Amino acid sequence: MAEIQIITFEDIREFYPQLSTNIDPDKITSSILQAQQNDLELFLGWYQYNEFIEDYDGANFATAKYISLFKGGVYDYRGDNRYHRGIKHLLAVYSFARLLNISNMILTESGIVDKITEESETREDFQERYTVMQVRSDSVRLEKDNRDFIEERISDYPLYNKVYSTDQKHQGKTAYKFFKVIPHG
After folding, report:
1. What is d(CA 87, CA 127) in angstroms, rounded to the nearest whole number?
2. Which pLDDT value is given to residue 182?
3. Angle value at C-alpha 168, between 165 and 174, nearest 5 degrees
4. Which helix H or strand E contains 113, and what residues bound it?
5. Are 63 and 46 in contact (CB under 8 A)?
6. Which of 51, 49, 69, 44 is nearest to 175 (CA)?
7. Which of 30, 158, 33 is CA-nearest to residue 105?
C-alpha cells in the first residue's frame, strides 16, 4: 500500500502564504511525501513514525495521542502551560523547504513561483538566503517544540527516536538538510 499524505498544499500555505498557488500538484505531492518519509521519519525515529502513520486513516488520526501530536494544543510542561504547535506545522516546514529546493522554484518580490515572466522581478541573493534562514529557524524551533512535547509524554510515545538500524539519534540538527543559496551570476 502506498503511503498516505497527512498534510495538504493548503496546510503548507497556512504557514507560508507567499507560496504560489500555481505550483505543479505533482511537485507538491512529491515534496510532502519526501518530507514525511525522510525528514519526519528521521525526527520521530522509524518505529514511532510508522506507528504514527498507521494511525492515520486518510482523513483523521484514530487515537487521541496522535491527534494531539499532529494538531498541537496547550499542555502542561513541568508545571507551566505551554502551547505545542504540532507535527502538522513541522511537516509543513519540511515540505516548504523541499518545495524551495526543487529545480524550477524561484523566489520573487511577490512570492515564490514556479516560473518567471518578463515582468517578474527576481529576488536578490540576500533575500533568498534570508528566506532559507527563516525556514531553517522555523524548523529548529518546531523540532524543539515537538521534542519537548513528546519527551514530556514519553509514556504515550515510547517508540520515539528508536531507530531501525545502527544509526545514532540525531541531536542538535534539523531532520531536513538545508541547502546553500548560490548566487545567480
Report:
1. 27
2. 47
3. 115
4. strand 111-113
5. no
6. 44
7. 30
How many helices and strands (H and E) does the chain possess? Answer: 7, 4
Provide the CB-side half-sphere exposure for 127 (13 A, CA): 12
| Grid coordinates given for 183 | 548566487
What pLDDT digit, counting tens, does each position of 123-171 carry? Answer: 556 566 777 788 888 999 999 999 999 999 999 999 998 876 555 554 4
Residue bearing cell 524551533? 141
Residue 32 has which C-alpha cell? 510532502
**C-alpha 61 chain-centroid distance:** 18
Type of residue numbered 93? V
pLDDT digits (tens, 9 = 90+) for 62-109: 999 999 999 999 999 889 999 999 999 999 999 998 887 764 555 555
Place of cell 516546514: 93
